[in-house]
Amino acid sequence: MVRERPAGLFVGLCTLDVIQLVDHAPGANEKLTAQDQVVAAGGPAANAAVTFAHLGGTARLLTAIGSHPLGVGAKADLRALGVTVTDLAVDSTQPPAVSSVLVTASTGERAVASTNATRHRLTPPDDLDALVAACDIVEFDGHHMELAVAAARAARTAGRTTVFDGGSWKPGTEDLLPFIDVAVCSSDFHPPGTHTPADTLRFLREYGVARSAVSGGADPIAWTAPDAEGAVEAPPVRVADTLGAGDVLHGALAHHLALQDRPTPEDFAEALRAAATVASRACASFGTRAWMREG
Q: Could you tell me which residue ranges the Carbohydrate kinase PfkB domain spans (predicted)?
């Protein structure tokens, strides 16, 4: 029986996002005055955890941040939003990964530069099995891959639902997929030998992923499940900022899946539809947090 307030464990990247709203992306040696700015904890797993908590779940983020003042600020931001952080790099005094983001005001398109998870190689914590057992669902963004594979293996042993956020193909992804129950990937996720969303869905099915989908911004989300397939329309919205929309989609999806008991293919499609509605709402305002204050 699924708990009334589901618990989610989110394994992956946390960054400090510095987001600037600009008229246009600057050229070489050009300086701009931004219209607005947001500084917040970010990263796919972190943003998904924030969304999960906002929708009423209990969220824990398993990641690497460190004790540098910028990292302390990122953790404080997450705590204020209801996310419990397990920091596996707590002794590191180096700055956390910083994502520099430029959002073009007229289109909502973003340009991002970040070191991501390249500075940390994480060892699974001694209490990993307990962390997994305490949750209903575990979500992975593909960063900190060795940790992700260990957590996914523990989740499979414990009978917990596993969800994969496939933003892009990363080294080691092939080791993670056999432990994944649900994979929702962006159109930029290209496993070896694939070229189209149909190729990607077929690849995931061959790796044993029972339910999978490929999202493409405003395009319909193509999905497949045992003996069923279909597409879910993304609700139309006037886009202000696409940053983090996929992360919100995954956090909302994890929340809806955690509330389902013995889901059918139709339940999966409905969870995707509900998650897409939340993600579309997030695109209607600047930054990764404003949507939570507006609805």
A: 10-290
